[in-house]
Amino acid sequence: MVEIRKLTSAFAMPDRRVVIHKDLDLTVERGEVMSIVGGSGSGKTVLLRQILGTETPAAGEVRIMGKPRESLSRRGASSRVGMLFQHGALFSAFSVLENVAFPLRELKTLPPKLVEEAAMVKLQMVGLKASDADKRPSELSGGMIKRAALARALIMDPPLLLLDEPTAGLDPDSSDGFVNLLRSLHRDLALTVIMVTHDLDTLFELSTRIAVVAEQRIIVTGSPREVIAFQHPFVHDFFPGERGQRAMELLREYPFAI
């Protein structure tokens, strides 16, 4: 589904050039849930944005379904990739329905009535009610904002879904409900998912594979059990003490077969 080869990410600062990734490689197979973990500033969200196409790498290649990312038209990219941003990124002046419908309306290829009907279907798919459609984002709870943003990410029926900290800011009950929703959608829609998360429960409950970003590259990819067992200082530091113990408990709890 996604191939990243020899990718370099760099940003120009007033006094220097900062390299985030160097010769980074990653392959994401169709149908899996690949989670990307790493330290702060390791460029996890940068990778998502480069797959989405909102940022361009300094060097290397990103291919989606066999096609170079830069060769995809706006419509082609929208039909292949959806993204759930960390804080939802809903338009505050739009209603929930208008937010979800926005990508379809921008393409201007469907009658307004059909666009509205498609948006309502997606709202119901993520567990929101018809009565929520006319609300503004300011009237929604954190969990409802996540669900509305997820509906918008899915409005074009993309086979690839990107998730940036999907459960960040949610209370435990809302987080559990959202993880269950993601698991169901992954199964029912045959989605491929690439996720960035710091939450261990989310990481181990959803991931089929994990990629660890450190030293400007992917140092290991594998099943959750394989990654925890990988002998590298960063992996050891990422799952230390009680966090490592919790990780092992989750390994026993979750079967990793979604």
Task: Describe the structure concisely for a colleague.
With about 260 residues, the chain is α/β, with parallel strands linked by helices. About 40% of the residues lie in helices and about 25% in strands.
Describe this structure in words.
The protein has 258 residues and is of the alpha/beta class. It has 10 helices and 10 strands.
Indicate how many domains the architecture comprises.
2
Helix and strand composition category: alpha/beta
Q: What is the CATH C level class of the largest domain, in words? A: Alpha Beta
Which regions have little confidence, pLDDT < 50, spanning 5+ residues? none
Cross-sheet strand order for the largest sheet: 6-7-8-3-9-10
- Strand count, sense and closure of the main sheet? 6 strands, mixed
Question: What is the residue-averaged pLDDT?
Answer: 88
Helix content: 25-40%
CATH topology of the largest domain: Rossmann fold
How does the SSE layout of this entry go?
Elements: E1 2-12, E2 17-28, E3 33-38, H1 44-52, E4 59-64, E5 67-68, H2 74-78, E6 81-84, H3 96-107, H4 112-125, H5 142-154, E7 160-164, H6 172-188, E8 192-196, H7 200-206, E9 209-214, E10 217-222, H8 224-229, H9 233-238, H10 241-253
Parallel strand pairs: 3-8, 3-9, 6-7, 7-8
Antiparallel strand pairs: 1-2, 1-4, 4-5, 9-10
Helix pairs in contact: 3-4, 3-5, 4-5, 7-10
For the structure shown, list the relevant keywords.
P-loop_NTPase, 258 residues, 4-stranded antiparallel beta sheet, 24% strand, 2 domains, alpha/beta, Rossmann fold, single chain, 10 helices
